[in-house]
Specification:
The chain has 230 residues and is α/β, with parallel strands linked by helices. It folds into two domains: 139 residues, Rossmann fold (3-Layer(aba) Sandwich); 82 residues, SIR2/SIRT2 'Small Domain' (2-Layer Sandwich), CATH 3.30.1600.10. The protein is built from nine helices and nine strands. The strands form two sheets. Strands 3-2-1-7-8-9 form a six-stranded parallel β-sheet, with helices on both faces. It has a three-stranded antiparallel β-sheet with strand order 5-4-6, covered by helices on one side. Strand 4 and strand 5 form a beta hairpin. The N and C termini lie close together (12 Å). Bound molecules: 2'-O-acetyl adenosine-5-diphosphoribose. The site of 2'-O-acetyl adenosine-5-diphosphoribose has 26 residues, from loops. 2'-O-acetyl adenosine-5-diphosphoribose binds next to loops.
């Protein structure tokens, strides 16, 4: 087993105090996607969209990685083959734990100019009057991939999925494509597949192995087994 692709979702950060989207009382029960997470919403009411992401940025900056983030960083540092860690999460907890990660849905830590595509570190509070440091226009937005937009790094991720021996999905409901389709891509390439989740997800049927429980317990145990060759 030498090449591993790991996909994480909101469930891995739940025990760091960051709410998931679709669990009971989750973010999408409190806000409508159409109001805060589409390009149309931003065009209609940029103040509301900035407020939503400013609040999430504050929470994410105050949060600490949990044992699951730490374990994945340990796996990455010690696995003799290749690992690619891909997250749908926009918090920075994988990096804070010392891992290298691809943010397919963008990151709260980033600001993006919609006029010239320049990217820079987001201040804690963004507003629609902020100007781009490169072109000086005020078309700045959070560097987040909204519904209807193309996720980042897809070419790199698909190439890795087509060449991997093991695909692992952690804490994701399998409701949002293209990430929900990664398990099928990996299976078609002949990879073994493992799902770690608190409960069955919409994609559970597609995985060979299921490990059920809270990520802070299941992920460190799974990493330990991987590194000890069990
Ligand atoms: P969801 O909120 O859809 O799913 C969270 C998953 O985590 C569920 O399957 C839970 O069972 C699981 N879970 C919750 N707590 C857990 C724990 N302690 N340990 C293990 N698993 C746990 O979140 P995502 O699947 O990440 O996109 O959502 C995918 C995308 O939908 C997000 O990136 C976001 C959202 O709309 C955009 O905003 C573009």
């Amino acid at each position: 087993m030498d090449t591993i692709v790991i996909l994480t979702g909101a469930g891995i950060s739940a025990e760091s105090g960051l709410g998931t989207f679709r669990d009971e009382g989750g973010l999408w029960a409190q806000h409508r996607i159409e109001d805060v997470a589409t390009p149309e919403a931003f065009a209609r009411n940029p103040t509301l969209v900035h407020q939503f992401y400013n609040a999430r940025r504050r929470q994410a900056r105050a949060a600490e990685p949990n044992a699951a983030h730490v374990a994945l960083a340990r796996l990455q540092a010690n696995w003799p083959g290749q690992t690619l860690l891909v997250t749908q999460n926009v918090d920075g907890l994988h990096e804070k734990a010392g891992a290298e990660v691809l943010h397919m849905h963008g990151a709260l830590a980033g600001a993006l100019c919609a006029a010239c595509d320049h990217r820079w570190d987001a201040p804690e509070t963004m507003s629609e009057t902020d100007t781009c440091p490169a072109c000086d226009t005020s078309h700045t937005r959070p560097d987040i991939v909204w519904f209807g937009e193309m996720p980042y790094h897809m070419e790199h991720i698909l190439e890795a999925l087509h060449g991997c021996d093991l695909f692992v999905a952690i804490g994701t409901s399998g409701q949002v494509y293209p990430a929900a389709g990664f398990v099928e891509e990996a299976r078609m390439a002949g990879a073994a597949t493992v799902e770690l989740n608190l409960r069955d997800s919409d994609m559970s049927h597609a995985f060979d192995t299921h490990i059920v429980g809270p990520a802070s317990q299941t992920v460190p145990r799974w990493v330990e087994d991987m590194l000890s060759g069990k």
